[in-house]
Amino acid sequence: MITIYNESKLQNIIDSFTIDKIELEKIAAAFRRDIVLGLEGDSLSSFKMLQSYLALPTRTEKGQFIALDFGGTNVRALLIELLGDGKVNVIKKATKQLVTADYNYISASTTAESLFDFIANLILEVAGTDKEYLLGHTFSFPSMQTDLNNARLITWTKEFATTGVEGEVVNELLKAALERCGASNIKPVAVINDTVATLLAAAYKRDHTDIGSICGTGHNTAYLESYHGLAKPRMILNLESGNFDKLFTNPYDKMIDERSEKPGEQRMEKMVSGKYLGVLFYLAICDALELADKAVDFDGADLSVILSDQSQNLKAVHQLIKAKMAIELDEEMCVWIKAIAESVVIRSARLIATSYIAIIWHIDGNEFINEHTIAIDGSLFEKMPLYKEAMQKTMYEMIGEDAQKVHLMLENSGSGVGAAIAAAI
Ligand code: BGC
């Protein structure tokens, strides 16, 4: 049973995950400045400002389309019917994992061909070979586009490492794989990021939607840019905001970055997204408990278990730590562990909410805030206790009563529906 602890050290760990209003304001100002620099094509911006070649849907988009949702270790193919005015019917759906005990399609020892053959076979399951379909592809990695269908992967994120995809046009790889497996009836015609897909799907049914964001395994935001540089004509830009780097980091952030596939990249994502929050928490509690790091795998779902534990003696916290780390904590230590988990999760929500405010200030200017709906997908926003509340509180802290004009809306079928809308456009 671990019962000895150093309160000031524990408090310091929590403080290292706590960001006050003044820091948030500095972050928002830097975020806003990076948007402006990015629009001017200035390399000092940490944003990629990727053009989507799409504005908002007209809501008249109709027909049956294949949607491919490829952005994490779960890949989905869907046959979707768009009925207009926000109405959508999912006719068929198939999902496959890219990593199991038997195979791994995201490691450096896998080739682009075998990854895309695997995906093409999944598409076949919903599309068959008889009928012709247009395919919209939600590809949730930073990609440089020259038109709606031509997206070249700049760099993998989320610890993907499959060889032969970086630098390539992803729909060309997909098309070749579809042909190899006898499915040339399916024509890839559009590639979009999941933030863009989420924004499109929400704007298909709701007014004032101009920001789309993902708070899940990865993190990123896209918004409708009306006036500036790169976004002429008016189009949705994918910021790749997970790469934002003007932040206040702590020692655990630095450790995560150093041991990641891509040190120095995706600094914000490594502080806020589901892929990393469990690891941040684990590194912090190893420090708190003065234990060696044995690379125990904590994930977002574990944090959710800890934050949901309302029992008097924090039984779930005790059991989870015992099961994962083979140690027993007394009740008081469980309280500290829960507080550390909360600080990790709340920091994520506060940083992301701040980035939304920065985007809104960029769109509206300083004088007046308009109505905005931010369409959000991802397990953190959908399922993590305290998350949405922490985002809303942060918005009140930053912009007061105007926060009532900013609506955070869950859009959890965006990646599929958005891809279908893009194919229709
Ligand atoms: C990718 C983004 C994506 C986000 C959410 C990030 O790792 O770089 O393109 O939108 O994850 O899936």
Structure notes:
- The chain has 14 helices and 13 strands.
- It has helices at 7-16, 21-39, 112-127, 170-180, 194-203, 251-259, 267-272, 274-289, 300-308, 315-325, 331-364, 379-383, 387-399, 414-424; strands spanning 50-51, 62-70, 74-84, 87-97, 133-139, 143-147, 150-153, 186-192, 209-215, 219-225, 235-238, 372-377, 406-410.
- The model has no long low-confidence stretch (mean pLDDT 95).
- The structure holds beta-D-glucopyranose (BGC).
- Beta-D-glucopyranose binds at residues 71, 140-142, 157-158, 193-195, 214, 218-220, 240, 242, 269.
Could you give a short description of this structure?
The protein has 425 residues and is of the alpha/beta class. It is built from 14 helices and 13 strands.
Broad CATH class of one domain: Alpha Beta
CATH topology of one domain, what is it called?
Nucleotidyltransferase, domain 5
What gross morphology would you assign? globular
Annotation, overall tally of beta strands? 13
Order of helices and strands: HHEEEEHEEEHEHEEEHHHHHHEHHEH
- Structural class from helices and strands? alpha/beta
Overall pLDDT confidence: 95
Stretches where pLDDT falls below 50 for ≥5 residues?
A: none
Helix tally? 14
Largest sheet: 6 strands, mixed
Approximately how much beta-strand content do the residues carry? 15-25%
Helix content: 40-55%
Distance between the termini: 61 Å
Biggest sheet: strand arrangement: 1-11-10-9-12-13
CATH architecture of one domain: 2-Layer Sandwich
Annotated CATH homologous superfamily of one domain: ATPase, nucleotide binding domain
Oligomer: single chain
User: Measured on Cα atoms, how large is the radius of gyration?
Assistant: 22 Å
Q: Write out the distinct hetero groups bound to the structure.
A: beta-D-glucopyranose
